[in-house]
Amino acid sequence: MGIRRRHWALAAPLALALLAATGCESTPGARAKPSAVPATSVARVCAKPAAGPAKAPPGAVTVDPAVAGDLAAKTRSSPRNTTFWLRPGRHRLESDRYAQVIPKEGDRYLGAPGAVLDGRKKNQYAFGGTARNVTIRYLTVRGFVAPHDEGVVNHDSADGWVIEHATIRNNSGAGLMAGARQRVRASCLRDNGQYGMNAYKAKGRISGLVVEGNEIVGNNTGDWERRREGCGCTGGIKFWAVDGADIRGNWVHDNRGTGLWADTNNNDFRIENNVLEANDGAALIYETSYNAVIRKNTIRRNNWVEGRRYADRGDTFPYPAVYLSESGGEPRIRARTDKIEIYRNVLENNWSGITLWENADRFCNSPANTSSGDCTLLVKNTGRCAQPAIATAPLYADCRWKTQRVDIHKNRFVLDKSVVDCTGKCDRMAVLANYGTYPDWSPYQGERVAEAITRKQHNRWYDNVYLGPWKFVAHDPSRTLDTWQWQGTPYQQDTGSTFRAGDGG
C-alpha cells in the first residue's frame, strides 16, 4: 500500500442509462457542489434506503437494542448459519474499543426498519473475523473509528460476504473491507473517513468481486491525501490485487479525491453502466494493473478540484478524468479480455479526458517503484529485475508494468470551458511518458519508454466524437497537438473520429 500519485517529472436501481448533458458552475479553487440527481435512474440508495423486515423471520434470533453487547453475545452463543434480526433502535457494542461482532460461517444479520449499529466513536470495528459467507442486510453501521487503512465491516477481509441494502456511513478508516467472492449490492457507502470500501486482503488475492447498484458518496472526509501528501490512500473505492471484478450500475459521486481507484496488480475488471460524477479527483484510476473493459459509463464534472489545483501550481501534466497509469492488456494473464478497452462512454465537462501514462523510472526493483516492493504479475521474484539480466529478454519487457493494448473508441467527449470555468489545461487527451533517468542502472533511460507508449505498444483512439476545443498531448508533456497533428504522421490517432470544436456548449 502507499502508492504515490506522480508528477510526470518526478519519480513519480441497478441499471444505468447514458445521461443527457447537464451543466454545473464552479469558481476557481472551490469544490464542485454536490451533484443534482441525474435525470435518469441511478442508485439513489442513500436518500431512499430499502426497509428491512418489520418482524423477525421464522427461527431468527432477536437482538435487543436496550442491551449493550447483545448482538455480539448472541452471535457467540448461537451456532453457525443463524439468522439474527435486529429490532428497531440504536444497537451498541461493549465499551472496549476492540469489542466487535465475530460471526460464524453462514450467519445472517437483518436490520428492522430503523435498526442502527452505532460505534459511538468508541469501537473500532463492527464485524470482523474470518468466517465465510456472512450476510448483512438492511442495517445501518455508523460511528466506528477504524484506524487508517483498516475497515469497519468485514474487517478481516473474509470471503463470500454479502452486503445488501446496507448503509455504512460516518466511520473512520474504510466503511467496508472486501474478501473473495464478496457481493456489495444496493448499499450506501457514505461520508467515511478514508474509503467507502477498501478492497484489500493481506494474504491471498481477492477474486470474483461484485459491486453493483450502490451509492458511493462523500468519502475521504479525513482528506488523507493532504494529511499524507502523495499517499495514494483514498477514494470512493480502492482496489488492490483484485483478480476479477464487476463494478456496475453504481452512482459514485462527490467523493473527496478519486471515485474508483484500482491500484497494483488488479486484473480482469468490467466497469460498466456507472455514473461517476463530481469527484474532486479523477473519476477512475487504473494503475499498474491489467486487462479491463470500461464501457457505457457516464463520467462528468470530475477532477475539477485536483486538476485546477495542479494547474494553478503551474504543473503541465495532463491530469484527467480517466487515468491509466502503467496499465494495459496482457494476453499472458488470464482474463475475459486481453486488452484494456474503453468504449461507449460519455465524458462530459470533466477536467480533461483520458490520459495514458507510463513512468519510465517505475519498474520492479527500482527505487522509484512506489508499489511497496511489488513486482509485475509476470515476474514472481523481484530480485530477478537487476543487472545484467533486466537489460535482455524476457525481463526487459516483463519487469515493468506497461501501458499497452489500450483501445479507446466510440466514446463521446464533451467540453464546455465555461462550465468547467477554465481557460487552459482542462482540455487534453494524452499518451505520454517521462524521460528515463533513474536509477543509474536502468535500461529504460532516455526516450525509450516515451517512444514505446506513443508508437509501439498498440494504444489507439478511433471512432470517437469530440465536442468542444480539445487538444492532444503525445510522447511527453511538451508536445501539445491540434487535431490535424494528432491524426497525422507519426501519431495517426483517432481514425474515423469526428471533431466539432465549437459545439461543446
Automatic annotation (TrEMBL):
Tell me the keywords, alphabetical order. Answer: Repeat, Signal
Q: Where is the signal peptide?
A: 1-20
Q: What PROSITE patterns does the record point to?
A: PROKAR_LIPOPROTEIN (PS51257)
User: Where do transmembrane segments lie in this chain?
Assistant: none
Q: From which residue to which does any coiled coil extend? A: none
The segment(s) forming the Carbohydrate-binding/sugar hydrolysis domain are 157-311
Q: What is this protein called?
A: Right-handed parallel beta-helix repeat-containing protein
